[in-house]
Automatic annotation (TrEMBL):
It comes from the Bacteria. Transmembrane segments: none annotated. InterPro entries: HDACs (IPR000286), His_deacetylse_dom (IPR023801), His_deacetylse_dom_sf (IPR037138), Ureohydrolase_dom_sf (IPR023696). This is Histone deacetylase. Gene3D superfamilies: Histone deacetylase domain (3.40.800.20). Residues 19-305 form the Histone deacetylase domain.
Length: 338
């Protein structure tokens, strides 16, 4: 679809801008400098090794991607392109997701947020898709299992788009519970139907909740409370990872989750993590392309993680209607009810 939009725009002579760019992280950094979150501490990331990437990607795929280092190329019809710094950035994105998990497992912090790009959840074992080269959250989960003593890892994906790559990687794995709430097909990438529940030993450890366009806080929180929480209590994870995209915010035009909604979802995950795994909760950035909702969304989650008071999500306009109803209440009351 993006390609059709590009063609359309080129015929209109409007420059098309690749939506996944370094300005996304600068916007987040700027907001966090402008409005610091009390209790937040920064650590530096690092590049993932080939061995770490090789736990979830095939060796031939990695060779193909590393051959593109320093080049410009199109990889996929779904607008996955690389420029001269992309491979280095993707290595650091995956390595930083690992570093965030290490910070939590080694006890330097109860929770962490890997602020990385390019995103990862569309990347499959042998295929780049949807801006994603390496599946950052999957690399982090596999590392936690292989090196850090975590047997069961739960991955929660609330990005607006289904995490097809993450699902693919762990589809037959009973030790990774993948919960994904997303806008339903035919929205990109088209996967994530209710019936996709895993296969073989992994049957039952993939949970998809497809949502209609415009779904918002009430629906998301109901899904968290009534599906995610019981699933997590059954699975008893040793670590919870979150593929956190901020494109469910209305500014990205697909869904209707508010900042208070993101904070409330974070609060639920924090409770679940404290109940099962000493609060060990690691966020990894996925999508979110409107710079205001992206940066504000990240800050809201960080504030919730750092123990800030959560504002209850409300239905927009409800308080105003109640006030207006009270204001007008007497206007249409007849003096003589008989
Ligand atoms: Zn997305």
């Amino acid at each position: 679809m993006e390609r059709r939009i590009r063609q359309l725009l080129s015929s209109l002579n409007v420059p098309w801008k690749y939506p996944e760019h370094a300005g996304r992280l600068s916007a987040i950094r700027q907001l966090l400098e402008l409005e610091p979150v009390p209790g937040l501490r920064f650590e530096i990331g690092k590049a993932a090794t080939r061995e770490q990437l090789g736990r979830v990607h095939t060796s031939s795929y990695l060779s193909h991607i590393f051959d593109l280092r320093g080049k410009n190329a199109w990889l996929d019809v779904d607008t996955t392109a690389v420029s001269t710094g992309s491979i280095d950035a993707a290595e650091v994105a995956a390595g930083t997701a690992i570093a965030a998990v290490e910070a939590v497992i080694q006890g330097r912090s109860e929770s962490a947020f890997a602020l990385v790009r390019p995103p990862g959840h569309h990347a499959e074992p042998a295929r780049a898709r949807g801006f994603c080269l390496f599946n950052n959250v999957a690399v982090a989960a596999a590392h936690a299992q292989a090196e850090l003593g975590c047997r069961r890892v739960m991955i929660v994906d609330w990005d607006a788009h289904h995490g097809n790559g993450t699902q693919d990687i762990f589809y037959a794995d009973p030790d990774v519970l993948f919960f994904d709430i997303h806008r339903a097909s035919p929205f990109y990438p088209g996967t994530g139907q209710l019936e996709e529940i895993g296969v073989g030993l992994g049957e039952g450890t993939t949970v998809n909740v497809p949502m209609p366009a415009g779904a918002g806080d009430q629906a998301y929180l109901k899904a968290f409370n009534e599906i995610l929480v019981p699933a997590a209590d059954w699975f008893q994870p040793d670590l919870i990872l979150v593929s956190a995209g901020f494109d469910p915010h209305p500014f990205d035009l697909a869904l209707n989750v508010s900042f208070e909604g993101f904070a409330a979802m974070t609060g639920i995950l924090q409770e679940v993590a404290r109940r099962h795994c000493k609060g060990q909760l690691v966020f990894v950035l996925e999508g979110g392309y409107h710079l205001i909702s992206l940066s504000r969304g990240v800050r809201t989650v960080l504030e919730a993680l750092a123990g800030g008071t959560l504002q209850e999500p409300s239905i927009t306009g409800l308080a105003e209607v109640e006030a207006a109803a009270a204001f007008h209440r007497q206007a249409f009351v007849s003096d003589d009810p008989d």
